[in-house]
Amino acid sequence: MAVTPPEAAVSPAADPALLCNRPFAQIAVGDVAAMERTLSLDDIQLLALLYGDLRPQQLGPAAGSSDFHGVIGHGMWAAALISSLLGTRLPGPGTIYLAQTLHFRIPLQIGDTLQMRVQVRARDEVSRCITLACIGTNQHGAVVIEGEADVIAPDKPIERPRASLPTLRLLDGGEQSLCERAQQLGRIRVAVVHPCDATSLAAALDAHTAGLIEPLLVAPRTKLEDVAREAGLDLSGLAIEDVEHSHAAAARAAALAASGQVEALMKGSLHTDELMAAVVRAEAGLRTARRISHCYLMHTPAYPRPFIITDAAINIAPTLEDKADIVRNAVALAHLVGVAMPRVAILAAVETVNPHMPATLDAAVLCKMAERGQITGAVLDGPLAFDNAISAAAARIKGIVSPVAGRADILVVPDLESGNMLAKQLEYLGGAASAGIVMGARVPIVLTSRADSRESRVASCALASLVAHHYRTNPP
How confident is the model at residue 416, as a pLDDT? Predict the structure, then answer.
């Protein structure tokens, strides 16, 4: 039963730092209070954490299946909004909850915006009991929840400071970590190229200690030993390939990979261009039929799953043909980390095709290529603006109906500059953990920045291990 809001309404407190009530004497039949909230996956997971509700409609692999038509929100989330309205606005502080009847009309899904309203229907002078009609409608105007609430209103005005709630972030601890998976597979032999600073050398030693790699340090021995001594690092028991300088280290490491003596390469303190120049030379023997590209595997507390950003380190201004391989490389990596059918968002500044914006044209063509079987193993959509790719709410507001929007596993950026800025913003401002790897060569290449943490470098080694073990039976 829908409630038609009358003209009478509850005005917000003049001071936003205060919660102010409406005592019984000031409440009239027809008074209304309302609030609006958008349902997120964090809301669903937090309720599950609090109440132990692990139904597959709301959590787990089945939540994304067609049987449930997306992730279904818990109806009591909507009921909690009613409680919030009664306790903070109408009547407000001092309210005593007596009874509640609710009817759940249609399911809530992630990204749904619920407008919750309570309206005074009856009041009893003797008991100060107030009956309120409650109704919640979604962004389409459909009734999601409705019912009645009985409360005792306070008999005098109350003002209380508005509480400041802490920021809550849910971290996914249910999946086996990247390092644990790699450790179970066993060490791979890695040529660590010119690790002649404390950070890169320590990262190689940490990855060795973690059981991920068997490092072969390719660098000038004297310089390497000086760095180890100054940093208090122990090189005993580690193999060292003595070379004259960083350029020679890159060339030698590429040769070791081409001959099968190592299964992966790891960048040390030399510049990216120096290492990659040695890798992409035709005579090095490390090229495949695919364009080489870089993938950031990232996990930020603001997004419910790990995702890949590509290409943010190798291809400065990729052509359409380059982007097709960039997508294929990222899809292959997603498969290796356990995403059977990754959702690929081809990013642009807008979500519509614009002839004056080449990135939107490339996105449209890539999607058509996937439709015709030229790119397989994934679901593609684009062009998508960044907000539409990662926010179901943003996609719904813009009327975008897509299997990818709001749930992307892979973000394909228009060019290196935009990708690099996006990845660094997420890392430094969004608290994202990251691992970086180059795909498309005959061996995986750990290509981290000189500013990256040791943790990021170790995680990248774990990622390289997964790829290298796969290549043992499925060479690229």
Answer: 96
